[in-house]
Each structure stands twice: as C-alpha cells, then as structure tokens.
Amino acid sequence: MSDNDKIEASHFMKLVCLFIIGTSSIVIPTIMASQAKQDAWISSIVGMAAGVLLVLLYSALGRLYPGKDLVEISKEAFGKWLGSLVSLLWFLYAFILSSLALRSLGEFLKSTMIPETPVEAIFIVYLCIVVIGVRYGISNIARTVDVFFPWVIGLVILFAVMLVPDIEISRLEPVYGEGIQSILKGAYPHIAFPYLELILLLIVYPKVKHSKAAGRAFLRGTLLGGSVITLVTGLSILVLGAESTASDIFSSFELAKEIEIGGFIQRVEVIIAAIWFITIFFKLVLVFYITVLSLSQTLNLSEYRTISLPLGLLFYASGVLIAPNISNLMTFHINIRPAYSAIIGFVLPATVLGVGIIRKRFRTARS
Q1: pLDDT tens column, 138-164
Q2: Residue 7's beta-bridge partner residues?
Q3: Using an 8 Å Cβ cutoff, are 18 and 279 in contact?
Q4: Which of 83, 93, 348, 360 could join 75 in a cystine, given CB atoms 3.0 to 4.6 angstroms apart?
C-alpha cells in the first residue's frame, strides 16, 4: 500500500523551505564566492530567480496530472515500461542526493566539532533517526516540521542580528566587479543545488490536501528558503570578505565564530550548528522518504515501509563510498552535480510536460 497520508499546504511550504536550506547553507556560499567573488550574493539572487521559474514548471506538471505523483506521471506520459525506466532515474537521483546530504553532514561534524569521531558512527546515528521517521510516514514528518520550523527561522534572524556589528559594506565593492560571466558561473551550481532538486518534491505534491494551494505553498517555500541562502551568502561576504568565504569550506560556520558582543557573548557557533542539524535532518528524511516511495511505486510494491531498512543499509554504504574526502565532495558539487541535475531536474520534466500537453491536445482533438 502506498502512503496515502495527507498534509496541509502550510506543512508543504515549510518542508520546501527546510529542504532548500538543508545542506545548501553549508557549502553554497563557498562555491558561489569561489566563482563570483564579492558578487556571490548576486549569484544567489539569480539562482533563486531560476528556482522560481523551475517551481512554476514543476507546478504546471502537477496541475496537468492532478492527484498523481512523479512516478505515476512518468508512467502515464510514457507508458508502463518506458515510464518505469524514467521512474528509476528519479529514484537514482533521490538516492544520490540522500547520500550526498549524509556525507556533507558527516564531513561538517568531523571537520568542525567532533574530529575524533569516525564518520561512520555519525552516519549510523543519523540514519537510525531518518529510517524511523520514514516509516512513520509523511504526515508525521509534516507535523514534526511544525515544531522545529519556528526555531529555524528564529535562529536565522538571531544569527543575522548578532552579526550586524561586524558588517563592512565596503567588502561588497566593487559591485558587479567580476562581470556577468562570473555571476552566472556562481549561480550555475546554486541552481543545481538545491533548486533543480525540487523536482523530487512532486512525489509529495499530490499529498497536499488542497491541490490548488500546493502550487502557492511550493512557491512560497522556495522564496523563503532561497532568501535564507541569499542572506547567509551576503553576510559571509559582508563579514568575512570574498576571499575568506571562498577559502573556508564551511564559511557560514566560520561566520558564526565572528560573533562577539560586549566581550561576553561569543563562541555561538552552536546557533548555526543547530540550524544545520534541524534542516539537514528534514532534508535527509524527506529525500530518503522520496527514495523509498519512488522505488516501491516503480516496482509496484504493496507497502513502501518494507524496503526502508534495506535501502537504509545501502544508503549507509553509499554515504561512506560516494566521496573519499571533502575535497572530492566539493569537486563533485562544482563540476559534476550541475550538469547531472540539469538533465534530471529540467530536461526530463520539461520533456514529460511537453509529452503530456501533446497527448492531452490529441485526446481533445479526437473527442
């Protein structure tokens, strides 16, 4: 049996927002600053604008096939066999994203907070929680997000306010100094990570109780999550400078170390760490839920929960093997991930939408 739980549009908006913040807030400021220097904040805005256009594309696909998720849409658009092959591509993409998110979390904790702890131990602890969350279903995940979402937004605001004394506007100069080409080079990986990943949320899209509200929630969540990424990127440039942001892999964590108010409020990296722990958990549990559900539907299994534990074990192994170190992980984010995501997150859904429109018009003409 598929997961037939329903969620509110407000829950979906919050899930989209935390999905976007997730691992993106860890490494995206560094990636954009390495390409666009002090104009990285402009790259972030360009990326968010592209993300809005992608969400409009995905919402159009959801409206064309009301009540159907990504796997069901693929099978209806391409037929049973070809549609199943396309569905496997969604599954593989979700599985890879899950592994990358898990690896990013492990590398962050090992590099900054618990260097003596084996990354495998970190994976086991997080995976146990994620697998349990997936087995409880999307409605329980959505209700949990209600508890943590205000904390995330509150901590982001507190984080930004506490950094105000350290801001130097001159670090943004010269604005547009690197030219449009560098800005677009900085935006390119940001569009892939995380906006092209949002295609996977069409697995959750039909579970929103009021389908007309789902599209608006999708857009609002994208704008809010994208605004947080832009805020963190801008603060990194304003406080650390472009060079330091580009050289520090976890620049937003280094940013938190700069907070010192009155000589007694300092070393508050726990704020940014708390934001990451919460958002990465929700991204992991959501993407792993999508991974499990997409495979079960592709294989026409009667119950998706039965494969959650076996996939969790594969997930663990993939997290260990997907990148030997943080340098390889960053190289993958910059050089490989954007092209791969463009195929899965834009070319494929645009093709599905085009086929669906043609078939709908053909049926209308025949009738």
Answers
A1: 999 999 999 999 999 998 898 888 888
A2: 208
A3: yes
A4: 83
